Amino acid sequence: MDSVEFGKTGLRVSRLAFGTGTHGWAGRSQQTDLGVDGLAGLLRLAYDHGVTFWDAADAYGSHPHIAKALAGLPRDKVVIATKTTSRSGAQVTQDVERFLRELGTDALDVVLLHFMTQADWPRSHADAMEALSRAKAQGKVRAVGVSCHGLGPLRAAAETDWAEVALVRINPAGVNMDASPTKVVPIIEKLYAAGKAVYGMKVLGCGQLAGKARAAIQHVLGLGVVHSLVIGTSAREQLLENVKLVEEFAPQYPLR
User: Fold this and answer.
1) What is the CATH number of domain 3-249?
2) C-alpha distances out from residue 131 to 2, 57, 79, 89, 110, Å
3) HSE-up of residue 83 (Cα within 13 Å, Cβ side)
Protein backbone atom coordinates (compact mmCIF):
# COMPACT_ATOMS: atom_id res chain seq x y z
CA MET A 1 0.00 0.00 0.00
CA ASP A 2 1.44 3.35 -1.06
CA SER A 3 1.79 6.04 1.59
CA VAL A 4 2.27 9.79 1.15
CA GLU A 5 3.18 12.88 3.12
CA PHE A 6 -0.06 14.26 4.54
CA GLY A 7 0.10 17.87 3.42
CA LYS A 8 2.33 19.91 5.72
CA THR A 9 1.33 18.07 8.90
CA GLY A 10 4.52 16.02 9.15
CA LEU A 11 2.41 12.86 9.14
CA ARG A 12 2.54 10.11 6.55
CA VAL A 13 -0.66 8.26 5.63
CA SER A 14 -1.68 5.25 3.56
CA ARG A 15 -3.65 6.07 0.39
CA LEU A 16 -6.56 4.09 1.82
CA ALA A 17 -7.93 5.02 5.22
CA PHE A 18 -10.16 2.80 7.33
CA GLY A 19 -13.44 4.57 8.11
CA THR A 20 -15.33 3.71 11.28
CA GLY A 21 -18.36 5.95 10.72
CA THR A 22 -20.66 4.54 8.03
CA HIS A 23 -24.11 5.91 8.90
CA GLY A 24 -22.49 6.95 12.16
CA TRP A 25 -23.85 9.36 14.76
CA ALA A 26 -25.05 9.41 18.35
CA GLY A 27 -22.30 7.03 19.48
CA ARG A 28 -22.67 4.23 16.92
CA SER A 29 -22.02 3.28 13.31
CA GLN A 30 -22.15 0.22 11.07
CA GLN A 31 -18.56 -0.48 12.07
CA THR A 32 -19.02 -0.14 15.84
CA ASP A 33 -22.06 -2.41 15.57
CA LEU A 34 -19.49 -5.18 14.99
CA GLY A 35 -18.49 -4.85 18.66
CA VAL A 36 -15.10 -3.96 20.09
CA ASP A 37 -13.45 -7.27 19.20
CA GLY A 38 -15.07 -7.48 15.77
CA LEU A 39 -14.02 -4.02 14.63
CA ALA A 40 -10.60 -4.26 16.28
CA GLY A 41 -9.97 -7.48 14.37
CA LEU A 42 -10.89 -5.81 11.08
CA LEU A 43 -8.63 -2.86 11.87
CA ARG A 44 -5.75 -5.22 12.59
CA LEU A 45 -6.38 -6.97 9.27
CA ALA A 46 -6.29 -3.56 7.59
CA TYR A 47 -2.97 -2.82 9.29
CA ASP A 48 -1.56 -6.11 8.02
CA HIS A 49 -2.43 -4.95 4.49
CA GLY A 50 -0.79 -1.56 4.91
CA VAL A 51 -3.87 0.50 5.82
CA THR A 52 -2.26 2.56 8.57
CA PHE A 53 -4.60 5.58 8.54
CA TRP A 54 -7.71 5.07 10.69
CA ASP A 55 -10.58 7.56 10.89
CA ALA A 56 -12.61 7.81 14.09
CA ALA A 57 -14.96 10.27 15.77
CA ASP A 58 -16.50 10.81 19.15
CA ALA A 59 -19.88 10.74 17.41
CA TYR A 60 -19.22 7.22 16.10
CA GLY A 61 -18.24 5.80 19.49
CA SER A 62 -15.26 4.10 17.86
CA HIS A 63 -12.45 5.07 20.25
CA PRO A 64 -12.57 1.85 22.34
CA HIS A 65 -12.44 -0.25 19.18
CA ILE A 66 -9.41 1.59 17.87
CA ALA A 67 -7.69 1.40 21.27
CA LYS A 68 -8.16 -2.37 21.25
CA ALA A 69 -6.74 -2.62 17.73
CA LEU A 70 -3.75 -0.43 18.63
CA ALA A 71 -2.76 -2.61 21.56
CA GLY A 72 0.55 -4.24 20.72
CA LEU A 73 1.09 -2.28 17.50
CA PRO A 74 3.87 0.31 17.09
CA ARG A 75 2.03 3.55 17.85
CA ASP A 76 4.12 5.56 15.40
CA LYS A 77 3.07 3.29 12.54
CA VAL A 78 -0.63 4.22 12.72
CA VAL A 79 -2.16 7.66 12.11
CA ILE A 80 -5.42 8.21 13.99
CA ALA A 81 -7.83 10.99 13.03
CA THR A 82 -10.75 11.78 15.29
CA LYS A 83 -13.36 14.51 15.55
CA THR A 84 -15.16 16.61 18.13
CA THR A 85 -18.66 18.03 17.90
CA SER A 86 -18.02 20.41 20.80
CA ARG A 87 -18.07 24.09 19.98
CA SER A 88 -16.76 25.86 23.08
CA GLY A 89 -13.10 26.00 23.96
CA ALA A 90 -13.65 24.50 27.39
CA GLN A 91 -15.58 21.55 25.96
CA VAL A 92 -12.99 20.94 23.27
CA THR A 93 -10.22 20.92 25.87
CA GLN A 94 -12.16 18.37 27.90
CA ASP A 95 -12.73 16.30 24.75
CA VAL A 96 -9.02 16.21 23.94
CA GLU A 97 -8.20 14.88 27.41
CA ARG A 98 -10.98 12.29 27.19
CA PHE A 99 -9.97 11.21 23.68
CA LEU A 100 -6.39 10.65 24.85
CA ARG A 101 -7.68 8.37 27.62
CA GLU A 102 -10.16 6.52 25.42
CA LEU A 103 -7.59 5.88 22.69
CA GLY A 104 -4.85 5.04 25.17
CA THR A 105 -2.32 7.34 23.53
CA ASP A 106 -0.09 10.25 24.48
CA ALA A 107 -0.98 12.30 21.41
CA LEU A 108 -3.84 12.55 18.92
CA ASP A 109 -2.53 12.64 15.37
CA VAL A 110 -5.43 14.60 13.86
CA VAL A 111 -8.42 16.26 15.52
CA LEU A 112 -11.13 17.80 13.36
CA LEU A 113 -14.04 20.05 14.17
CA HIS A 114 -16.80 17.72 13.08
CA PHE A 115 -19.63 18.52 10.65
CA MET A 116 -18.97 22.11 9.59
CA THR A 117 -22.12 23.28 7.77
CA GLN A 118 -21.75 27.08 7.86
CA ALA A 119 -19.30 29.18 5.86
CA ASP A 120 -18.53 31.39 8.85
CA TRP A 121 -17.11 28.57 10.96
CA PRO A 122 -13.69 30.28 11.31
CA ARG A 123 -15.47 33.09 13.14
CA SER A 124 -18.27 31.26 14.95
CA HIS A 125 -15.96 28.45 16.12
CA ALA A 126 -12.93 30.58 16.99
CA ASP A 127 -13.02 29.48 20.64
CA ALA A 128 -12.93 25.80 19.70
CA MET A 129 -10.15 26.45 17.19
CA GLU A 130 -8.05 28.22 19.82
CA ALA A 131 -8.51 25.29 22.20
CA LEU A 132 -7.22 22.85 19.57
CA SER A 133 -4.29 25.17 18.83
CA ARG A 134 -3.39 25.17 22.54
CA ALA A 135 -3.59 21.37 22.63
CA LYS A 136 -1.29 21.25 19.62
CA ALA A 137 1.19 23.61 21.29
CA GLN A 138 1.15 21.28 24.31
CA GLY A 139 1.97 18.28 22.13
CA LYS A 140 -1.39 16.63 22.72
CA VAL A 141 -2.54 17.06 19.10
CA ARG A 142 -0.35 16.91 16.01
CA ALA A 143 -2.64 18.45 13.37
CA VAL A 144 -6.01 20.22 13.34
CA GLY A 145 -8.71 20.79 10.79
CA VAL A 146 -12.35 20.40 9.80
CA SER A 147 -14.84 17.94 8.42
CA CYS A 148 -16.75 19.87 5.74
CA HIS A 149 -20.43 19.51 4.82
CA GLY A 150 -21.23 22.28 2.36
CA LEU A 151 -19.54 24.39 -0.31
CA GLY A 152 -19.29 27.39 2.02
CA PRO A 153 -17.42 25.53 4.76
CA LEU A 154 -15.21 23.90 2.15
CA ARG A 155 -14.23 27.26 0.65
CA ALA A 156 -13.54 28.60 4.13
CA ALA A 157 -11.22 25.67 4.84
CA ALA A 158 -9.21 26.52 1.74
CA GLU A 159 -8.91 30.15 2.80
CA THR A 160 -8.20 29.65 6.51
CA ASP A 161 -4.58 29.14 7.55
CA TRP A 162 -5.64 27.42 10.79
CA ALA A 163 -7.05 24.38 8.96
CA GLU A 164 -4.19 21.98 8.26
CA VAL A 165 -6.46 19.05 7.40
CA ALA A 166 -9.73 18.93 5.47
CA LEU A 167 -12.08 15.96 5.25
CA VAL A 168 -14.09 16.42 2.05
CA ARG A 169 -16.98 14.66 0.37
CA ILE A 170 -16.00 13.46 -3.09
CA ASN A 171 -17.11 10.83 -5.61
CA PRO A 172 -17.70 10.84 -9.37
CA ALA A 173 -21.51 10.76 -9.13
CA GLY A 174 -22.10 13.64 -6.71
CA VAL A 175 -23.88 11.30 -4.27
CA ASN A 176 -24.07 12.69 -0.71
CA MET A 177 -21.74 15.52 -1.72
CA ASP A 178 -21.80 19.27 -1.11
CA ALA A 179 -22.53 19.90 -4.81
CA SER A 180 -21.67 18.38 -8.16
CA PRO A 181 -18.07 17.24 -8.70
CA THR A 182 -17.57 20.11 -11.18
CA LYS A 183 -18.12 22.58 -8.33
CA VAL A 184 -16.40 20.63 -5.55
CA VAL A 185 -13.20 19.54 -7.32
CA PRO A 186 -11.88 23.09 -7.95
CA ILE A 187 -12.16 23.83 -4.24
CA ILE A 188 -10.35 20.60 -3.36
CA GLU A 189 -7.65 21.65 -5.80
CA LYS A 190 -7.33 24.95 -3.91
CA LEU A 191 -7.04 23.09 -0.62
CA TYR A 192 -4.28 20.92 -2.04
CA ALA A 193 -2.47 23.87 -3.65
CA ALA A 194 -2.52 25.63 -0.26
CA GLY A 195 -0.62 22.71 1.27
CA LYS A 196 -3.58 21.32 3.19
CA ALA A 197 -3.85 17.63 3.97
CA VAL A 198 -6.92 16.42 2.10
CA TYR A 199 -8.71 13.15 2.58
CA GLY A 200 -11.93 12.12 0.91
CA MET A 201 -15.07 10.66 2.39
CA LYS A 202 -18.27 9.40 0.71
CA VAL A 203 -16.05 7.95 -2.01
CA LEU A 204 -18.62 5.18 -2.44
CA GLY A 205 -21.57 7.45 -1.65
CA CYS A 206 -22.45 5.79 1.67
CA GLY A 207 -22.66 2.48 -0.16
CA GLN A 208 -24.76 3.71 -3.09
CA LEU A 209 -21.74 3.34 -5.38
CA ALA A 210 -20.53 0.05 -3.90
CA GLY A 211 -21.32 -1.69 -7.18
CA LYS A 212 -19.13 0.85 -8.96
CA ALA A 213 -16.27 0.84 -6.46
CA ARG A 214 -13.61 0.35 -9.10
CA ALA A 215 -14.64 3.41 -11.10
CA ALA A 216 -15.20 5.53 -7.99
CA ILE A 217 -11.80 4.78 -6.45
CA GLN A 218 -10.04 5.28 -9.77
CA HIS A 219 -11.78 8.62 -10.25
CA VAL A 220 -10.90 10.08 -6.85
CA LEU A 221 -7.28 8.90 -6.96
CA GLY A 222 -7.09 10.19 -10.51
CA LEU A 223 -7.76 13.74 -9.35
CA GLY A 224 -4.22 13.83 -7.96
CA VAL A 225 -5.19 16.14 -5.10
CA VAL A 226 -6.62 13.75 -2.49
CA HIS A 227 -4.01 12.28 -0.17
CA SER A 228 -6.15 9.43 1.15
CA LEU A 229 -9.58 7.86 0.63
CA VAL A 230 -11.49 7.00 3.79
CA ILE A 231 -13.91 4.14 3.17
CA GLY A 232 -15.97 2.53 5.88
CA THR A 233 -15.95 -1.26 5.71
CA SER A 234 -17.63 -3.77 7.96
CA ALA A 235 -16.61 -7.03 6.32
CA ARG A 236 -13.32 -8.69 5.43
CA GLU A 237 -14.28 -9.06 1.78
CA GLN A 238 -15.10 -5.35 1.43
CA LEU A 239 -11.81 -4.37 3.02
CA LEU A 240 -9.69 -6.63 0.84
CA GLU A 241 -11.45 -5.47 -2.33
CA ASN A 242 -10.81 -1.81 -1.43
CA VAL A 243 -7.17 -2.58 -0.62
CA LYS A 244 -6.77 -4.33 -3.97
CA LEU A 245 -8.25 -1.40 -5.90
CA VAL A 246 -6.20 1.26 -4.14
CA GLU A 247 -3.03 -0.81 -4.56
CA GLU A 248 -3.82 -1.03 -8.27
CA PHE A 249 -4.63 2.61 -8.95
CA ALA A 250 -2.54 4.63 -6.47
CA PRO A 251 0.76 3.99 -8.31
CA GLN A 252 -0.90 4.99 -11.59
CA TYR A 253 -2.18 8.29 -10.18
CA PRO A 254 0.44 9.94 -7.97
CA LEU A 255 -0.29 13.23 -6.26
CA ARG A 256 0.44 16.31 -8.32
Assistant:
1) 3.20.20.100
2) 33, 18, 21, 5, 14
3) 27
